[in-house]
Write a structure and sequence with these properties.
With 496 residues, this protein is mainly α. Helix content is 72%, strand content 0%. The longest helix is centred in the middle third of the chain and has 28 residues. The radius of gyration is 23 Å and the shape is globular. It starts with 16 loop residues before the first helix and ends in a 12-residue tail after the last helix.
């Protein structure tokens, strides 16, 4: 969020840090009520209302107690909304890719090929790797866990693995993919909220993410090697069901490869994502005409399919880009896997972003954000203490707000000006936020992520928590890299 031009000179009197915490207290209490009422559905509107309520309280305090004008607050809100315009467009394109990559058979092919590496002696490591691969390609840890994760839990039980270990491996992999995928909304949020280019953010995260995943995989592999297991017949059954619903061919991998080339060549994120969606749409028409026909004719059995007409192709691809797709295969797990919501599936997240940047804008315009930043500045004098404070704040926001999106945006808002003041690169902030707010959300039982994954996997949060090795290691790895100073640079000297 862009708070660089906050008109602090127009603020008549700076609130104390104690007063500045009042909006956060209001936000926390209202979120507790909303999450208690709506549970995982709080993101469908309840959390957004809480942010607007906290914004209203902030504005009321600022105008009534400190004599600030509404124009100051409104200008900051509008600046923040303008700063996330590209992020909103990227999220819409991510929704389009979620639909086109699924209907084209690209994601199902990745799943099938990934499952072929599963053998009992490496089950946990393979479960983590497959979850990471699927999450990387889809950009969604929730979708990965709700589909492949459910299947892997069943396989793990059949092979005699403790559900906590299996769930930990699945979540570790899923959140790795979610964290580094250019298709992930949390990745886009963290990069845009700190003002870091998306692919710069992703490349910089590899410094902490790869070691964290490597350690997790090593532990999962060791446990698997010393654990007696049964066969993986359920894996073959699941892969067979996917192959019956889609034409799986290595040619489908051309789209991910070409997308990777665009990323390596540093093509702007919006252009890369648009090209990826268009290429997948072409592939869908060529290799999955039956799936495109089913999207164009919802409710009709695919047994009535003979050929794909031009108009059905246009309708099917258009719906795949923006709307819900549901292809009936007769297998509930497969139906859940291949169901997508396109661009419309991103609207709640976009709604949340707008409400969050509104809250951040009011905090900046009222001077409360500056008051809190100055408090943090006194406590964080070196890179390691600054990163440690950021990581700790991300975790605390997950605990008190119960939502990772709000945690990402609030943590970025609180520290963005401080990182700039200390002269550190913005990518250090975006990475520190991802290493905490993104990955620890699933470890909190009352957080929307923790509640959802515990429900989907049927494994209590506190039961899988000790085995989510990637999620536990990542925050410590972020602080460790700051402590040794590896790839920690100042963009300019500290500005006091």
């Amino acid at each position: 969020m862009n708070n660089d031009n906050t008109p602090h000179s127009e603020i008549r009197r700076l609130p104390s840090w104690q007063v500045s915490l009042i909006p956060f207290a209001v936000l926390t209490l209202s979120l507790v009520v909303v999450i208690r009422i709506f549970g995982p559905d709080a993101l469908s509107g309840g959390s957004q209302v809480c942010l607007l309520l906290a914004s209203a309280v902030t504005a009321a305090i600022s105008m009534a107690a400190y004599g600030n004008t509404w124009q100051i607050l409104e200008d900051c809100i509008l600046d923040n909304i303008r700063s996330v315009g590209s992020a909103i467009l990227i999220l819409l394109l991510i929704g389009a890719i979620a639909g086109t990559w699924m209907v084209s058979g690209i994601v199902p092919a990745m799943i099938c090929y990934g499952m072929e590496i599963i053998v009992p002696a490496i089950f946990l490591a393979a479960a983590c790797a497959i979850s990471a691969l699927v999450s990387l390609m889809t950009g969604s840890s929730w979708t990965t866990i709700a589909t492949i994760g459910v299947a892997l839990i069943g396989i793990g039980i059949a092979q005699g693995f403790d559900p906590g270990w299996t769930a930990g491996a699945i979540i570790s992999g899923a959140y790795f993919g979610d964290k580094v995928s250019p298709l992930s909304d949390t990745t886009v949020l963290a990069s845009s909220a700190s003002g870091t280019p998306l692919f710069t953010h992703i490349r910089y995260m590899m410094i902490t993410t790869i070691p964290s995943l490597t350690i997790a995989l090593a532990v999962f592999l060791t446990v698997s090697l010393f654990h007696p297991t049964a066969d993986a017949s359920q894996t073959a059954e699941f892969a067979g069901a996917l192959r019956s619903a889609f034409h799986i061919t290595p040619w489908l991998m051309a789209v991910p490869v070409l997308t990777g080339v665009l990323i390596v060549r540093k093509v702007p994120a919006i252009l890369t994502l648009f090209c990826a969606a268009v290429m997948a749409a072409v592939v869908a028409v060529i290799f999955q005409p039956q799936a495109v026909w089913a999207v164009a004719n919802p409710g009709l059995s695919t047994s009535g399919f003979s050929s794909l007409s031009f108009w059905d192709a246009c309708k099917g691809i258009t719906v795949t880009f923006y709307g819900a797709t549901g292809i009936q295969t007769g297998n509930a797990a497969i139906d859940s896997l291949i169901a997508t919501r396109g661009m419309t599936g991103m609207l709640n997240t976009i709604f949340l972003i707008i409400c969050s940047v509104t809250f951040g804008g009011v905090l900046a315009g009222s001077g409360m954000l500056k008051s809190l930043t100055e408090l943090f500045a006194r406590l964080a004098q070196r890179a390691v203490t600054l990163v440690g404070a950021t990581v700790g704040t991300g975790l605390m926001c997950n605990i008190v707000t119960g939502d990772q999106y709000i945690s990402i945006l609030l943590t970025s808002s609180l520290y963005k000006r401080l990182y700039e003041r200390k002269g550190y690169e913005r990518r250090l902030l975006s990475r520190s936020v991802e290493d905490s707010a993104t990955v620890t959300s699933v470890l909190i039982p009352w957080n929307s992520c923790g509640m959802t994954q515990a429900t989907v996997l049927k494994v209590p949060t506190l039961e899988y928590l000790p085995y989510c090795l990637f999620n536990i290691i990542s925050p410590f790895m972020s602080v460790l890299m700051a402590a040794i100073g590896y790839k920690i640079f100042r963009s300019r000297p500290e500005n006091n």
